[in-house]
Amino acid sequence: MVLDTGHQYELAPASVPAGLPSPGEVVPAPVLAAVALAAERKIVARRVFAMLDRRLQPLARLRGKLLDRGHSAEAIDAVLTQLQERGVYSDRRYAEAFCRDCLLNRAVGRRYLVQKLREKQVDGDLAATVAAEVLDSATETELAGQAAVARWRRMRGAADYKALAKVVRFLIGRGFPGGLANQAAREAQPPAADEAEY
Question: Is the pTM of this model over 0.70?
């Protein structure tokens, strides 16, 4: 759509506002504002897909980056809401992908996943729900055991109480609950030197 003022608007056919006059007629101010918003939404949608093509991001970060580029909050919110309503993209999808990718690279617990998602501006309740869905209790127990075995292999010196405490702290730092961290560290603890002789 090109106006006699030189302004050119690219619109999706479904975005053409009602009340658009025939070519050559004067466009009422409310209709012109609707046309400008529809054109901006199209640009915002393209930028969102370009950003997501490079790297998945939570909606809050997408919104912030688009605001920094000078887009109106109204256009941004309309596009992001539409993506969520149509099931194209949401914070839930981002959180699920983040948790799966994170678990491919390291053995961590649910609390670690929730903390990282919250740092990335994902709602805390949603982060906890997704982390619980992606990482069930049995898998979390298994990962705690794997992390404990790997940590004990890197420990130097005797496998005494000080070393055990270090392994437990390490596991808690990886997001495993205290009880599970203690259990996994004890089960993976190598025998003491005098016990190994028997």
Answer: yes
